[in-house]
# Entry
Amino acid sequence: MKNFDKYERQYFLPPVCEYDWAKKDYIEKAPIWCSVDLRDGNQALIEPMSLDEKLEFFQMLVDIGFKEIEVGFPAASETEFIFMRTLIERDMIPDDVTVQVLTQAREHIIKKTFEAVKGAPHAVIHLYNSTSVAQREQVFKKDKEHIMQLAVDGAKLLKRLASETEGDFSFEYSPESFHGTEVDYAVDVCNAVLDVWEPDAAHKAIINIPATVETAMPHIFATQIEYVSKHLHHRENVVLSLHPHNDRGCGVSDAELGLLAGADRIEGTLFGNGERTGNVDIITLAMNMFSYGIDPKLDFADMPRIRETYERLTRMHVHERSPYAGDLVFSAFSGSHQDAIAKGMAWREEKKLKTWTVPYLPIDPMDVGRTYDADVIRINSQSGKGGISYILKQNFSISLPQAMKEEVGYAVKQVSDEEHKELSPQWVYEIFEEIYMNKMNFLKSMAIGLMLLTGTVSASAQDENIYGMANRVGVGVGVGTEGIGFDVAVPLTKYVQARVGLNFIPNININTSANVASENEYYSYNGEMDVTGKFSRTTFDVKFDCYPFANASSFFVTAGFSMGGNKLIKISGHSDELEDLYAQGKQYNIEIGDYQIPVDENGNVNGGVKVNSFRPYLGLGFGRL
# Structure
C-alpha cells in the first residue's frame, strides 16, 4: 500500500517502564463505571437525542445500575443546559447516582457550567484541556508552561465557584490527547491541578486519562497508566479513571490492561458508541468480567430490551457480531459446533453442573435474556445431524434414534442448500413431517405398526393364562375419512381392549381453480387462479375400548387420539397477472374454503390447509375379540 512512509508512531513511553501489571492474569473486581452515552455518545450521533429521548436513556442507565453518568456539556448548547436543569428540577437523580458535566478550561464556559448544575444533589465537574505536542504546536501555539497554567487556572476557578454555588460538587481533570503527550509532562499537569484541589478522603478527585485518539498498542497504554498511577500526588485520595477510544480497535484491551496497571474507574458507552470509531464498550467489558465469575455491578440480564431501547433512541444499529448482544453471537451453524453444544448441554443436565462449561458458548445465553432454540442452534446447509436432532427434541419432543439422525440431517440440509436460506425450527419440523409422516409408504407404515404392536403386547402380556391379557390379537383393514388404514387390537383385561392403527392417503393430484381475493378496500381482482392440489397424508392412532359390562355385553365406549398428518392438502400455482399487480403494490390471496393463502411477489402461491397434529377421539360401538 502506498504512502505508508508518511506515518510514524505518535505516542511516548514513560521515563521508567516497570511492567508490574503484566504479572497479573485477571481483573479482581469491577471498576467504578461512568457512562458517557449522554455526552460523548450523544455528540457523535448524526441526529442527537431530543430532551425526552435523553431523559428515557438516563432512566435506562439508572436501571442498569450506573452510579456515575456524564449527562452533557451544558455550555455547548441550550438543549444540553435544559437537560441538566430538568434532571435537577424534576428531582430525577437518585440519591445514589452522581451526574457529571464536562467543561473546557475556559472561564466563561466554566461559569455557564455552574449555572447549569446549581442545586444538584451531587455532581462531578469535569475539567479538561489538551496537552499533546500536536495541539500545543498547531492549535494553541503555546509552550508547556502556558498549557499547564491554563489547567491550573481552570482548577482554581472550579474550586472557587463550587464554594459559591448551591449543591454538592466533586472535581475531575483530563489531559486531553494523552497519547500524544509526553507521559511525565501529563503527570506534571495532573499534579499541578491536584495541588490546587487538595483532595482528601471525604472529597476525592478524579484524574481521567483519555485515549482521545488511540495511537498506541494496549500494552504501551498499560505501561503509561502504571507510571501515572505510581507518580500522582495525593494518590490515596485520587480515583484514577480511563477514557479509552477505539481508533485501533483496541478500546476493550486498553481498558482491561489499564485496570491491571492501577486504574480504578472506566468511562465508556453502551455498545461502544462515540466519536469516530467509538468509545470503549462498557457492555463488553462488564460481560467479560461476568464470564470470569466476577460481579460487574451492572445488570444486563435483559439485553434484548436494552438493545432495543438503545437502537430506538440513538438510531444506531448494534452489529450482528457485537459481543454478548448481536443477533449472531451465540449462533452455531457449523455441524461440529452444534454437535459439541448439544452434547455439552446434555452433559450439563446429566451431571447437574452449576459451573458453565458448554463448548463454544463463553456464557449461558439465558443470562442475558437469550434463548437456546432461537439464538444458539440455527439450521442451514452447514449444519449437522446433532444440531437438527437437538432442534426436533427441544421444540417438538421428537427424540430421533441414533441410526436415523444422519438420514434426517441430510434431508434437512438439502432443503436449506436448495433454498439458500436458514431454516426455522418450525420449517425443520415440517420437513421431517413431510418426509417421514406424510410421504411414508405402506411398508414403512406396517413396520411402525408392528413395532407399536410388539411394544403393546410386551407391556400387556404379563400372564397369558388370565382371560384377556394379550392372549388374542385382531387385525383389521378398512377405508374411511382418514384414508386406507389398518389396525391391530389386543385385549388387556376383560374390561379394556387396546387398538393401534395406521392410516394413509396416497399421493392424489387435483388440478383446479381458486378464487382470488383481497382484504384491501382500495383495489380488488375479479378472477381465478389455476392451482394444483396435492393430497398425501399419514396418521397414526391409539384407542382404548372400555367394556362397562365386562363379558355380559359387546357394547364399548372408545377414547383415544390420532397424531400426525396435520397437512391436509398442499397448494401450488402461478399467475403472471398477479405478479405484475404485486409489483404495483397490490397483494392478493387465493381462497380455499375458509382458508386464504397469500400470493408472493413472483406471482406464486405455495401453501396448504392444515389441522392440529394431535386430535382427541371419543366414540361408541359394538363388538370384541
Residues 446-468 have pLDDT under 50 and may be disordered.
